[in-house]
Design a protein that fits this description.
The protein is an alpha+beta fold and about 140 residues long. It has one domain: Gcn5-related N-acetyltransferase (GNAT) (Aminopeptidase, 3-Layer(aba) Sandwich), CATH 3.40.630.30. It has a six-stranded mixed sheet, with helices on both faces. Keywords: Transferase.
């Protein structure tokens, strides 16, 4: 876990890595009910994911959590971006772009390999330097429960 707290404000909006600000109910509700990648996930599993992530990002509007993302990183060679979302009623305002831009600017993610997986947001992430794997045959995965 990275203890440095990073924050950026734009008017009534705030991005913060302060874990004490996170609203686990909002995060769990979105991931378990609205996301395609974590549908049905248990609340205690979301809490563990947050606890063991290197960096967590809350996106807030007037102190209400409206978005989230997390990064696992060794701060030198590898980072993985996961669980990026903005609540539907706040989408279309450039907030997801701002969140990703903020994340990729941090020193802890200036690593050799920064990975993510997405079903439908390739064009968003491409704006921040992400590209398809040029040798996907080198990558392997192990699926769990």
């Amino acid at each position: 876990m990275i203890s440095t707290i990073y924050e950026e404000r734009k008017g009534d909006y705030l991005i913060s890595t302060d874990r004490s600000l996170l609203d686990l109910d909002v995060i769990h509700r979105y991931l378990s009910q609205e996301s395609y990648w974590a549908k049905g996930i248990a609340r205690d599993q979301v809490a563990r994911m947050i606890e063991h992530s290197s960096l967590v990002f809350g996106l807030y509007y007037q102190n209400r959590q409206i978005g989230f993302a997390r990064v696992m990183t060794d701060t030198v060679r590898f980072a993985y971006l996961a669980d990026v979302f903005v609540l539907p009623e706040f989408q279309g305002k450039g907030l997801g772009k701002w969140l990703v831009e903020f994340i990729v600017s941090l020193p802890e993610v200036q690593v050799k390999k920064f990975l993510l997986a997405t079903r439908d947001a390739h064009s968003l992430y491409a704006k921040y330097g992400f590209e398809p794997l040029n040798q996907p045959e080198k990558f392997m995965r192990k699926l769990g429960k």
